Amino acid sequence: MIGRMILETCASVDDAIQLLKELPHRGSFSYVVLDRNEKTYVIEASPRGVLVRQSHVCTNHFELLQHENRHHLDDSRRRMQTIDRESHKHLSAQDAFRLLNDKNRGVFSGLYKSWAGTIHTSAYFPKDLKAWFALGGDQEPIEFNFAGWLKGEDIAAEPIHGELDTKMGIANMD
Predict the structure, then answer these.
(1) Which of 69, 85, 113 is where one domain is finished?
(2) Residue 136 has pLDDT above 90, yes or no
(3) Which of 112, 113, 161, 163 pairs as cysteine with 117 (C-beta 3.0–4.6 A)?
């Protein structure tokens, strides 16, 4: 819901940061925001505060709001190190998506029982006003054209299918 509010009301990352500082937060979550100027920030939000850092990488732990972190974060930190290491290779968009979504590349997580499993993978292209999205691992992304959406056109999309290796119920997934 908050992600949709950002998309519908914010024209820039500065707007998104301001909105997230004003909203109450019931849970802890990191938002990665990027705008047409390619300014990228990670906004760490919790019921007790909102802090912002300039970065394009986050996993399942906070870097700034460390007191909000759960105790078992080794996997999250390992995954972040993998992303940091690979991001210096100047990957193509497709290769970067594969790094995040392929189950055997070290970033995708199946730790759903620990609330640390990867549910979706997304990529954003602000200059082209497009986004890629996939549910589960080892999936090809579905492409969304935001240029049309911004003009008021409906995004005609079929349901997005994916598979998570868990018996846990996940909101909005049948």
Answers:
(1) 69
(2) yes
(3) 112
Q: Which residues pair with 136 in a beta bridge?
A: 163
- Answer yes or no: are the C-beta atoms of 69 and 51 closer than 8 Å: no
The model's pLDDT over 153-169, given as tens digits with 9 standing for 90+, comes to: 887 778 888 888 887 76
Q: Which residues contact 87 (CB under 8 A, 6 or more apart)?
A: 56, 57, 96
Q: Are residues 95 and 46 in the same domain?
A: no
Q: In sequence order, which ranges of 35-145 are alpha helices (DSSP H)? A: 74-87, 93-101
Strand-pairing partners, residue 142, are 133
Spatial separation of the C-alpha atoms in residues 140 and 159, rounded to whole Å: 14
* Parent domain of 170: 71-174
How many structural domains comprise the chain? 2
Which phi and psi angles does 3 have, rounded to 5°? -60, -40
pTM of the model: 0.81
Is the CB of residue 6 less than 8 Å from the CB of residue 41? no
